[in-house]
Amino acid sequence: MKIRDSKNPSSTSGKRKEKESKTDKALKGIENFIRLLPTGTIFFFRSQNPLFTHNGDCHTVNKVFTGILIVVCSFSCFFSAFIDSFVGSDGLVHYGIATIDGFWPSPASDWSVDLKKYKIILGDFVVALCTLIMFAVVSLLDPNTLQCYYPSFESTQHLWVMLLPPVVAFLVTAVFIYFGTKRHGFGYPSSPTTTQDSC
């Protein structure tokens, strides 16, 4: 038979709330990390890279086109940090680009929404930089890219190839948990409830 502490019932509820807030923060960090790399861009890169690199057996033309692929995908990753959305009064999700002044909406946007609260903040640039770093690690340490640009690196620096991705992922995740993102870009649209606390 357990006896409850009738003197201090709020102590257990306070500890529970503190534990829940830490759990919520950890789960929010994981959610932010999942959103860090745009899924479509990664899928496109992973599917096209073997074709562009000729499965790692590169010639000069392959190197040029693979470089273009990496640059285009890198730009897509960086740019995606500034995409946001809101739910208009028509109930539809409207996408646009965060700007210094506010929001550059899609043509059918609802102007009754206060677009100033969607303007670019410092955290957007941190998220964009983290996204770019993560994509650089994913793309430059891809086996086909390694074989194409620096074939001897994988055999001589095998430890770096194995350790660099998880170390960079850990550091970027730590930064990303701190800054986070409240943007709702492609694949993560706003809902009527999240639009209110988007910024």
UniProtKB/TrEMBL annotation:
One GO BP annotation of this record: endomembrane system organization
GO cellular component: cytoplasm; membrane
Subcellular location: Membrane
Principal location class: membrane
Coiled coil: none
Source taxon at top rank: Eukaryota
Location of the region described as Disordered in the Swiss-Prot/TrEMBL record: 1-24
Record key words, sorted: Membrane, Transmembrane, Transmembrane helix
Bilayer-spanning residue ranges: 65-87, 120-140, 160-179
Membrane topology: Multi-pass membrane protein
Sequence ranges of Basic and acidic residues compositional bias: 15-24
Pfam family, one: DUF679
Family annotation (PANTHER family): PROTEIN DMP2, PROTEIN DMP3
Family: Belongs to the plant DMP1 protein family.
Protein name: Uncharacterized protein
Organism encoding this protein: Protea cynaroides
